[in-house]
Each structure stands twice: as structure tokens, then as C-alpha cells.
Design a protein that fits this description.
Low-confidence stretches: none
Radius of gyration: 23 Å
Number of helices: 17
Helix content: 25-40%
Strand content: 25-35%
Strand order of the largest sheet: 6-9-10-3-11-12
């Protein structure tokens, strides 16, 4: 009997103006991690949506355990033994953990009454089996993004799936949580589960996968055993060319102090307490720390997204009174948030509307009307300069890949001409080619005298792009180091200083 669980044969799919998939094939074996890689827009998500019945393929076939299948929706796929852990979480955040785990399949007693004790018991058992320290009755919105992602993974496992798709599963996880995820995957492999693993993190792919399939521009490029691959080979297949360096070279020209943050804190909603640092003109200041250390909260306090209880923010020697995000934008700040789907994009709006929405005042004419011609010009400029792959500016942004959504968001904020760009995980879920383009854009900004504060969970990115790294441990500044004089070991040691 063949050990192939899932076989996708010659799938093609077109949308108006673009051929998203062109005769793509993929198979997944029992007890295998099959990585799927490609640049944003390569067709990975479209292929998975065809598998799950979200899109109807134009041609091709899908076989599960040797039998031809066709799913009209994700529920049919799930009931047939195919589950997916999505990168962009779509959860009922006002409900508790066990509600999210059993949504749509609540256990009943007497055929009509909810069996809550059984639901609690089964949820507790799953959480303990995979070493996740969460109360089943905890409201999901009270959990960190990383904890919520682990809950989503457990939900997929709870369906006893034969094949599980992991889409960027470690994008919000700490190193310790990544190890925990890999332990879960090892257990699944031992049970004979086949896994499709989508990620842009090449070190991770080479560590966890058995085989790697690479797509480019909607086409199948190659499949290789992971042990036979190098990062250079992966990059060449993904982008069609070799990248001489993962990070573009920048001539560092850091100037005088631009921003001073003194004793910043807001203990009622976050861990942040007495955070002090400065930022210079033309500088990229990286922020490192474990997930939950308070990194994002620092940027949210500066940007007025959260109200500070203490501290001062001083720009160009002037003390600012930032009460909300509108005040922050007026004072030359812009912020790229960690969660694109939740608070970055307006999913029901077009690329054009998302591109110009933060800069509407500049398009006003006669107090009421907006200059559509100018808005279109700026949108086209973003699409061209950021290399956004989209059928048109009228396309809904939610239909674009995560990387292309991120490019639109960055372009949106650049239209406001900020002095300081706050970037929270700016390359999360973005392929190596798109990352390089964003790195080049960041370098261009600081070369023009702008400044950037960047949070990243990827240590090579922090060291490769930052001038200095501020390490946060349990809401406090554990140290600020020069990137050309530090090491990953020193940064990680500082990250655990106050734990």
C-alpha cells in the first residue's frame, strides 16, 4: 500500500487578470513534514484554498488516501481528515479556550444539552498532552498572540486529522514555544499524520522538514529532500536568482538624538515600567526580547494606542503630549502593527482605499470632496515602488498575499511622510525576496535622515539591520548593545535577565 496520504495533481486556477496556479502538483506522505515554500504571491495560499474547497480549481484532481475527493467548503475537508492552522488567526476572542476548541461540534448529553464537564475534561487533556499551560475557561482575548496560536494548533490536532497544514505557525512564537511546536509535530509524525508546513524561515524549514517543494509565480519549481538542500539553493529556486547577501549593505550615518523616552510605563495594561532610551537620526534601533516581555506595548505607548501612566516622550527637544494615535501621526510618527489582519488592513476595502486612508486630509478639496486623481497617482506609486503584486488597485486587499498586504501598509504610512517609523515584526510571514525589498526601503529611509524602531523575533534580522538593539526583559530594559559588538548569546542572556 502506498504511503502517500494526499496527492494534488495538475491544479490550475485563474482570476481576472492573473493566473494564480499553473499545473501545480504536490504529494504528502504519512509521517512526513513536507515544506511548501515560495515568495508571497507564488500561489501557496491559493493552492491550499483549492484543497480546502474555498476556491474551485479550473482543472486538476485531488486524492486522499488514494480516493479522488472534492470539497465544497472547509468543513467538508475537516470532516474528511484535513485540517489547517492559519497564519492569520480567525477566532472568537470573546469566548473562552474550550469554546473555540469545540465550536461547531459541541459535545451534547441527552441530544440537546451542552455537556460542559466533558468539554472541559477533553480540553484539559489536550492542553496537558501538549504541555500548554492555559486554563480551558480563560477568555481568548486575555491570551497573548502566541498562546492563541498554540490553541489553534491544538484545535487542528483535536480533529484527529490525517493531514494538517501549518501556515507560518511560528511567526508569533518564542524560541521555547517553537521547540514546543516541534515536539507536537514529532508526536503527530509518530501517529502517521502527514504535514504540509508553510514558512519563510529557511533555518526552520531545514530543521523540521523531510522534503521541500518550491513554487514561483504560480508554477511548480522543484521538490527535494531537505538534507540535500542549502539556503542558497532554496533562495535561487524561490526568487529565480541568487541573493548575494540576506541584508543589503548600508553606509551607517547616524546623527544627533531625535527622540528621548524617559521612564515610560503603564502597569495597568502591560508589564512596561520605567523604560528609557534614545533614538538618533538615521538610526535603526532594534527591540529584542521574549514573547510577552512588553516589546509591542512600548511602541503602542509611544504611538498613543495605549495610555501611559508615567514617563515622557521628547522629540527634537520638545516634550510631547500624545493622547491618541492622531496626535502621534501629527507629530511625525507612523506604526506598522504586528497583526495585519486584526489592526493593519481594512479587509473589505480595495488596495487603493487601504493605501490612502491614513493620508486623506492631503486629498481634500473644497473641504468635502477628495481628489481621486491624486489618490490614484499615489496608489500607483506605492504599487510600483513597493512591487505590490495585485491585479489592480481596485482589488480587495484581503485577497492579496500577506507580504503584498504588508507592502501596501508600509506604503500607506510613507505617504504621511513620518520622521519616525515604528515597525512591529515588519517582515513576519514575508518571503526572502520581499524581505530584501523591505530592508532596502528601510535603509533608504534612514539614509534620508528618518529613524526606525523595529521589533523582531528573528535574531539574524535584528543583528543584520539594526545599529543598536534594546533588549526587554519582563517589561524592563535589560540592556542596549551595539550590533557590531554583540552576539546572539549576549542578547538572549539579557532577554532572561529579569525573569
Amino acid at each position: 500500500m502506498s504511503d502517500i496520504l494526499l496527492e494534488i495533481k495538475n491544479i490550475s486556477k485563474s482570476f481576472p487578470g492573473v493566473k494564480a496556479l499553473d499545473n501545480v502538483s504536490l504529494d504528502v506522505r504519512a509521517s512526513e513534514v513536507h515544506a511548501l515554500m515560495g515568495e508571497n504571491g507564488a500561489g501557496k495560499s491559493t493552492l491550499m484554498k483549492c484543497l480546502f474547497g474555498i476556491y474551485l480549481e479550473d482543472s486538476g484532481e485531488i486524492f486522499l488516501e488514494g480516493k479522488k475527493v472534492h470539497f465544497n467548503n472547509a468543513l467538508q475537508a475537516l470532516n474528511s481528515g484535513i485540517a489547517m492552522v492559519q497564519q492569520e488567526l480567525n477566532q472568537a476572542t470573546k469566548r473562552n479556550v474550550m469554546d473555540n476548541l469545540w465550536l461547531g461540534r459541541y459535545p451534547l448529553k441527552y441530544k440537546f444539552m451542552l455537556d460542559e464537564p466533558k468539554m472541559y475534561k477533553e480540553t484539559k487533556k489536550l492542553l496537558e498532552e501538549f504541555n500548554i499551560d492555559v486554563d480551558p475557561r480563560e477568555t481568548l482575548s486575555n491570551l497573548s498572540v502566541s498562546k492563541r496560536q498554540m490553541i489553534e494548533i491544538i484545535k487542528a490536532v483535536s480533529h484527529n486529522a490525517k493531514v494538517i497544514v501549518f501556515d507560518e505557525p511560528t511567526s508569533s512564537l518564542s524560541d521555547q514555544e517553537v521547540e514546543q511546536l516541534f515536539a507536537i509535530i514529532k508526536k503527530l509524525k509518530e501517529k502517521g499524520v502527514g504535514i504540509i508546513y508553510i514558512s519563510h524561515k529557511m533555518e526552520e524549514i531545514l530543521a523540521i522538514s523531510d522534503r521541500v517543494t518550491i513554487m514561483r509565480d504560480g508554477k511548480y519549481i522543484s521538490t527535494n529532500n531537505s538534507k540535500d538542500l542549502t539556503m542558497d539553493k532554496i533562495i535561487k529556486d524561490m526568487v529565480g536568482r541568487s541573493l548575494e547577501s540576506r541584508f543589503p549593505i548600508r553606509e551607517k550615518n547616524v546623527g544627533e538624538i531625535l527622540l528621548q523616552v524617559k521612564n515610560l510605563g503603564a502597569t495597568h495594561r502591560s508589564l512596561v515600567k520605567d523604560v528609557s532610551f534614545d533614538l538618533r537620526k538615521g538610526e535603526i534601533l532594534g527591540i529584542s526580547g521574549l514573547v510577552g516581555a512588553g516589546r509591542s506595548e512600548i511602541l503602542e505607548l509611544i504611538f498613543g494606542y495605549m495610555s501611559k501612566e508615567q514617563g515622557e516622550v521628547i522629540l527634537n527637544g520638545k516634550k510631547l503630549n500624545i493622547k491618541n494615535t492622531k496626535d502621534a501621526i501629527k507629530n511625525g510618527f507612523a506604526m506598522i502593527t504586528e497583526e495585519r489582519r486584526e489592526n493593519g488592513i481594512f479587509g473589505v476595502l480595495s488596495v487603493k482605499e487601504n493605501a490612502v486612508i491614513s493620508n486623506l486630509n492631503s486629498y481634500k478639496e473644497y473641504k468635502l470632496a477628495l481628489n481621486d486623481k491624486k489618490m490614484q497617482y499615489d496608489t500607483n506609486k506605492i504599487i510600483d515602488e513597493m512591487s505590490v503584486k495585485t491585479p489592480s488597485s481596485k482589488t480587495k486587499i484581503s485577497s492579496l498575499s500577506g507580504g503584498n498586504q504588508q507592502k501596501v501598509i508600509i506604503g500607506r504610512w510613507l505617504l504621511t511622510k513620518p520622521e519616525i517609523l515604528l515597525m512591529d515584526e515588519p517582515t513576519r510571514g514575508i518571503d526572502v525576496g520581499a524581505k530584501y525589498e523591505i530592508y532596502q526601503l528601510m535603509n533608504k529611509m534612514v539614509d534620508e535622515g528618518k529613524s526606525i524602531i523595529m521589533i523582531s523575533s528573528e535574531m539574524p534580522e535584528l543583528i543584520g539591520m539594526s545599529d543598536r538593539i534594546m533588549v526587554i526583559s519582563n517589561g524592563k530594559v535589560a540592556g542596549i548593545v551595539d550590533t557590531d559588538k554583540t552576539s546572539q548569546e549576549e542578547v538572549m542572556t539579557l532577554a532572561t535577565k529579569y525573569i
